[in-house]
Amino acid sequence: MRCSRKMIRLIIISIAFGVFIGCSSTPYKAPVVDATPIPDHRIKTHHVGPGETLYSIALRYDLDYKKLAAVNKLDSSYRISPGQILSLDTSSYRPPTASVVPAKKPTSSTSITQAASSKIESVAKIVFPAPAKQAGALKWQWPVKGEVLEAFQAGDGLNKGIDIRGKLGEPVLAAADGEVVYSGTGLRGYGQLVIVKHNEQFLSAYAHNRVLVVAEGDKVKAGQKIAEVGSSGTNTAKLHFEIRLDGQPVNPLAYLPRLQ
After folding, report:
1. How far, in Å, CA of 206 to CA of 195, rounded?
2. What gap in Å lies between CA 106 and CA 128, rounded to an integer?
3. Closest C-alpha among 157, 170, 167 to residue 242
4. By C-alpha distance, which of 191, 158, 233 is closest to 56?
């Protein structure tokens, strides 16, 4: 009986000593290697929803509608349908090249003057792409005259235009002559939105309206009422106004006249 008690004590001491050694030693940890690739968050395609137009989709992704149409092989009507899948990768876009009509070779009886005239005529037949900027052809005006509440933020800024204080129900005016290419509520974050196409380079957008008074396809003149100031998503009556040049947001204050 006495031996058994000694043996039990020895066993208990051995176990306790083993636990102490185990706790005092630092266990080996295998290095953790994160082999998960960094995900690419860029959206590559868009499923067309009801009421969307090519222009509203281009505005949403800061794309040039002409490039978007070209890479998706759309015709000049730019017509799209709900459920259609559009590629948003415009990196493969190549601008059309100038086409040259070859000049006729002068015959031996052609005079030097006639040959020179023929050469000038051939140069005149060269079809060049539209120039990159045509701001001088547009006369911009303020869509609403009021205090600028939020300024334009370049780059990845959240504000792609300016916010102008207005009065609820005040007329929103077209900032320049053009054609309405979108009128609706299908673009999240813009509320009731109007997009006007002014030429091949410039679009303007008017957001957070209370009422829209124009429809897609309407021709509008500078100063014509296209909507009424609203307050969607905010407690302040204001207009969110954007100007897009070849799909990219630009500072509207660089184009609008200075207020007196």
Report:
1. 6
2. 25
3. 157
4. 191
pLDDT tens track for 10-39: 555 555 445 444 444 444 444 333 344 434
Name the phi and psi angles at 22, rounded to 5: -65, -40
User: 135-254: which CATH topology?
Assistant: Glucose Permease (Domain IIA) (2.70.70)
Residue 142 in tokens: 């303020």
Q: 45: Cβ–Cβ under 8 A, 6 or more apart, which residues?
A: 85, 86, 87, 88
Contacts of 60 (CB under 8 A, 6+ apart): 187
Could you report the per-residue pLDDT of 82-102, keeping only the tens digit for each? 999 999 999 888 887 655 445
* Extents of the domains making up the chain: 45-87, 135-254
Cα distance between residue 27 and residue 201, in whole Å: 66
How far apart CA 118 and CA 62 sit, in angstroms, is 45
